[in-house]
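Protocol step 4 of 6: structure prediction from sequence.
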Amino acid sequence: MTTIRIPDHIRAFLDQPGIASVGTTGRDGKPHQAIAWYRRDPDDRILLNSSSGRRWPTDLLRDGRVSLAILEPSNFGRWVALSGFVETVIDEVEAARDDICELAARYDSDDPETLAAFRTQPRISFRIKVTSVHDHLGDE
């Protein structure tokens, strides 16, 4: 699969903390969606993290294809859609816990009680390689 360079105006949008709708494919072939925090890394990979055992991470471990729709929190008419595939699975629990704590800080949810709870959970992270981008930002 060919990866792409994310255009600068979409990078700027993704660098704001929004909520991603994560689309996966179930074992039965049916689509599934869930909501997740995310982060764009400097190499344009997208980091996702979840508690282990949930449906969408289980789907991604079986079939690494994924789609993301990210809405602007203050204007739902502005959004970005990404498609890609899992390039890296971070299933080492401490590393995945570090990822969720970093995401909590990004989303202003890094109070000590929340971080302590995250540090007790079995976590898993995914680095997504982006293969296509579609936006409805209207500011190109």
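Step 5 (inspection) to follow. Strands lie at 19-25, 31-36, 38-40, 46-51, 65-72, 75-90, 123-136.
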